[in-house]
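Troubleshooting log. The previous structure file for this entry was overwritten by mistake, so regenerating from the original sequence record. Sequence copied from the archived sheet and checked twice against the printout by T.R.
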Amino acid sequence: MLRRIIHAMIYYGDEGGFVAECMEIGVVTQANSLDMALKNLKEAVQLYFEGEQSESLGFVSNPILDIHLETEVADEPVETAFR
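Regenerated output below.
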């Protein structure tokens, strides 16, 4: 059965900015802003499928991205945030 959804996560990078990474396919990109990370991710996924039959890669012809944003709840460690 062909997959309809590509799962991705956007999270803060170790050196600042945002990293966007797909779980099922080899796509990773980064940007300084969340908006740009999302734009880069969509473009990178389009390029991944460009020239390929998505069905041959295990996906329907127009898969969708299910994107999760990982963020910290507080700017400081939890132990000190609630004192």
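The radius of gyration is 16 Å. Archived copy saved in two places this time.
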